Amino acid sequence: MSETINRTISVAPMLDWTDKHCRYFLRKISQHALLYTEMVTTGAIIFGKGDYLAYNQEEHPVALQLGGSDPTDMARCAGEAQKYGYDEVNINVGCPSDRVQNGRFGACLMAEPETVAACISSMQAEVDIPVTVKSRIGIDDMDEYEDLTRFIDVVAASGCDTFIVHARKAWLKGLSPKQNRDVPPLMYDRVYQLKQQFPDLHISLNGGVKTLDDVQLHLNYLDGVMIGREVYSNPYILAEVDNRFYQDNAVIKTRAEVVMSMLPYVEQQIALGARPWHIARHMLGLFQGQPGGRIWRRYLSQNGTKANVGIELLTDALEVLLDAQSKAEQFQSEMIG
User: Fold this and answer.
1) Domain residues of the chain, as ranges?
2) Superfamily of domain 9-246
3) Per-residue pLDDT tens over the stretch 254-287
4) Binding site annotation covers 332?
5) pLDDT (tens digit per residue) in 159-170
6) Is 208 known as a binding-site position?
7) CATH no. of 255-336
8) What is the spatial distance between Cα 106 and Cα 238, in angstroms, rounded to a whole number?
9) What residues are labeled active site?
């Protein structure tokens, strides 16, 4: 079994992004950040033909994010998650997409705290692992602080003690999911106030976090911080998480060492039928902000989908990048000299 979860720093569930390959890669950078799956619906788990709960044991601590609103189905799926060894099950009460609303889950459930509470009760009766909730600060015209506290009151009374709050409200009518990530303003103070009002609850914040200094600032007021898109575009932001927030003094891998550490996994997954691009696409941002970062991205993008490509996709990309960095350093040295 995995280590006990420390929820201080986590990586957000992101549809089409945080699959098992992405999580394995991120785990090579941080050993302690809590990783979330993409949202998986109860219907997919109960009726789907694929194995929607599969993951790599190296991913721990890892949480399953579940989409649904039927207490019986949610409890059944939570039980399956526990059998698989997940460290936590999280209920999605934040996604604003039409498809999710039509399935009666995601952010629209903020208008139905009693439904979420019923799911919590059923799930906790089924499992011993934590059952948590990820929500928004409000939806549509239900966006007053009192609306948020009522939601928290009702759900917490059912036994949930951990909430991850995206500090934007969601417009369910008139804005796309993409617009909902940027258009409604971030209201960090509202999440801080929530922690003051509910000191016994574990409250984490999500939304707009771009640096570890941002994380440190929010931790002055809250129990945890969840980082989303910034991790995907700049995954090496996690490199100092273990040292800085978990008192783990392990030597930080260089970006090149992270690449090399991925080779056995890529080889293993190729043998199981995966294509290198399925993994490499999550690594495009590894050298963001570094000399040669564009060369790295371009090489992977241009060669990743070719037929019969193997682990040399990564080794060749790294060689091209390191050569470019060497030439840049030599040029700079000559200019100074």
Assistant:
1) 9-246, 255-336
2) Aldolase class I (3.20.20.70)
3) 999 999 999 999 999 999 999 999 999 999 999 9
4) no
5) 999 999 999 999
6) yes
7) 1.20.120.1460
8) 27
9) 95
